[in-house]
Amino acid sequence: MNVIFDWTFAWEILPKLGAALWVTIQATVLGMLLAITLGLVLALLRRAPWRVVSWPVALVVEFVRSTPLLVQMYFLFYVLPTLGLGMSALTTGVLALGLHYAAYCSEVYRAGLESVPRGQLEAATALNLSPWRTSLDVVLPQAIPPVVPALGNYLIAMFKDTPLLSAITVVELLQESKIIGSATFRYTEPLTLVGLMFLVLSLAAAWGVRRLEHYLKRVQGGAR
Question: Which CDD domains would you find in this protein's record (predicted)?
């Protein structure tokens, strides 16, 4: 009788999948840190009063959003080295994920920034606050909390997009499961474990985002 799921084999391959999972987590966390930071910069630049700044930024954002992530990965990994900008596969993957999702995060930030009542800006001007202090103390504390759920969705989406890194030779979680399957001719156990790992970490990330959202709401409510 053939065993559909071999628990002994599953325990044997778990350390290899765990090492690959760490690569996936690294790519996701570093890519998201780049995305939320660069996304905020892009959103602020796009709202700049000077068209010479806002229009090129808007063009870049729309270009990145309108082209596939996989194509961007290929470009960074295979074209940039010909220009003398070679990077490791993982670094290239993190950069590709960060740049791609920064374009989406910038639109989320822009919606949050535009939701701040104009009266708040007028009050800051009346108080003779500098543009920097106005952004830091008035605009961002009101704009960021409402967009946390959307940013959390992009975090989970980025995590699920990490299998694309295998296209540029990064051995992430799914790629490791395929390597194990091709070597042992058993795909049920590695793919099942990979699916469970993605599910558990996605749910954990969603729970963490909800907790952060509630915390920011309490802080914002206490500040009032």
Answer: TM_PBP2 (cd06261)
